[in-house]
Write a structure and sequence with these properties.
Bound molecules: 5-O-phosphono-beta-D-ribofuranosylamine
CATH class: Alpha Beta
Shape: globular
Strand content: 15-25%
Number of domains: 1
Largest sheet: 7 strands, mixed
Order of helices and strands: EHEHEHHEHEHEEH
CATH architecture: 3-Layer(aba) Sandwich
Number of helices: 7
CATH superfamily: Formyl transferase, N-terminal domain
Amino acid sequence: MKKSVAILASGSGSNAENIIRYFRSKNNKDVCFPVIISNKEDAYVHERAKNLGVSSYTFKKSDFESGKVLEFLKEQSIDFIILAGFLLKVPENLLQAYPNKIINIHPALLPKFGGKGMYGSHVHEAVVVAKEKESGITIHYVNENYDEGQIIFQAQCEVLPTDTPDDVAEKVHALEYEFFPKVIEQKL
Ligand code: GRF
């Protein structure tokens, strides 16, 4: 059965773009990405959506909490939700409507460097400050607590003593681009 997937992103959206391009390049007709949703009007992900020919929308935090976003997703017949750099907490109404159908990617090896405030460059800075020898990605189901849902997949990269947070971010992004689309493909 054909699956309709919504991608939620708050920032640049390079993962969102990479996921959509992956499925397009495989000519996979069983999966479609009709909408990208952001909580930020000026997020670059809207530009990427336009270039990809995908509709993108902005909803406020209160729209997520009130159920307006859920209503919209139902109207669009969305079966599955991917969080790709999405910074708001997923509200209960979405968790209940999409049990085990919301997947997030975290740019570190959970349970380390997760939780509130641990996003984007903050994560990579914390990894460098802690002198970690490795970092990586964690793909997991979303539950009511930040970064605590069941882990689906992890991949590691080396962190050298000379690495800056930007260096770590680059290595982590490479893992994200390689593995996130494939893991989504397996779990849909
Ligand atoms: C990624 O590193 C993702 O793991 C994290 O936020 C970043 C988003 O990057 N949750 P982009 O917007 O996909 O470029």
